[in-house]
Design a protein that fits this description.
It contains 5 helices and 6 strands. By secondary structure, it is an alpha+beta fold. Strands 1, 2, 3, 4, 5 and 6 form a 6-stranded antiparallel beta sheet that branches. The mean pLDDT is 94.
């Protein structure tokens, strides 16, 4: 089994969507862990605040099969298949890391959101600070220390 990290985001029907995503992702593998959940303003557009977190688990699914499952779940919970980026959404699930795999085709791994967004990097930092990012050589903690894109993240408690 391969350890994977998935970012979860929602700014429409947020609590329901995050709870649903967590329940669905738990079915895709074993040893499920979830970061703290944060509220954050959208990046790149105006809209309601997001709830964001990162899930980690071990899975037997291939990267392609896992990516297909994530897209199926997004559609199941109301995201249109051809929905453009930078708009409000019920559910956004992105494969961040798949073991030590490096890929340049879809899904691109590791996902570059790790380097761009505090709402991805801070929860990842909680779950795996010593994880070395494949192809980079730095740990999540090292990337976090060098990260200079300020974004206010407010911890939120959701009961599961």
């Amino acid at each position: 089994m391969t350890e994977v990290y998935i970012s979860i985001g929602s700014n429409l029907d947020r609590e329901y969507s995050v709870r649903a995503a967590v329940a669905e992702l738990k079915r895709l593998g074993a040893e499920f862990r979830l970061s703290q959940i944060f509220e954050a303003e959208p990046v790149g557009f105006d809209g309601p605040s997001f709830l964001n977190c990162v899930a980690a688990f071990k899975t037997k699914l291939s990267p392609d099969a896992l990516q297909a499952q994530l897209k199926t779940l997004e559609r199941k919970y109301g995201r249109l298949p051809d929905a453009p980026k930078n708009q409000s959404r019920t559910l956004d699930l992105d494969l961040l890391l798949y073991g030590d795999l490096i890929r340049t085709d879809t899904p691109v791994l590791p996902r570059d959101d790790i380097y761009k967004f505090a709402f991805v990097l801070q929860p990842l930092m909680e779950l795996c600070p010593e994880q070395v990012i494949p192809g980079d050589g730095r740990t999540v903690a090292e990337i976090w220390r060098e990260f200079d894109h300020p974004q206010v993240l407010r911890p939120v408690v959701i009961k599961f």
